């Protein structure tokens, strides 16, 4: 299994897991208790099982090489979206809300998590291009 397949599989896995967690949170926020929430231990077991299925021959010590950058990417995109929503609430102008003064980390056009997720082919390449675009837009991230 090559690295690109692993990255693509991890992206899909994390999207599915995050999507499910957001769905559960939305249900909880709406006070709909028709579904049992998963506890942390069960979630951890589920994630480990999924990781073992898709990683195949990759050594456990190498997981961080693939997982940490993807988690960081997802998180900075989520934070950017939160900051954008706050800016929109304050100023009401989408173009101004993209400004550097409202964001700790800039996410350039076509470099957001949702852009990578929308790709159906060459997801690994889309990730690399997004990482590079974010690095170029944020000098403090050069070399990370």
TrEMBL record:
Acyltransferase in keyword set: no
GO BP: DNA restriction-modification system; methylation
Reactions this protein catalyses: a 2'-deoxyadenosine in DNA + S-adenosyl-L-methionine = an N(6)-methyl-2'-deoxyadenosine in DNA + S-adenosyl-L-homocysteine + H(+)
EC nos: 2.1.1.72
Annotated N6 adenine-specific DNA methyltransferase N-terminal domain residues: 43-143
Keywords attached to this entry: Methyltransferase, Restriction system, S-adenosyl-L-methionine, Transferase
InterPro entries, sorted: D12N6_MeTrfase_N, DNA_Adenine_Mtase, SAM-dependent_MTases_sf, T1MK-like_N_sf
UniProt GO molecular function: site-specific DNA-methyltransferase (adenine-specific) activity
Family: Belongs to the N(4)/N(6)-methyltransferase family.
Protein name: site-specific DNA-methyltransferase (adenine-specific)
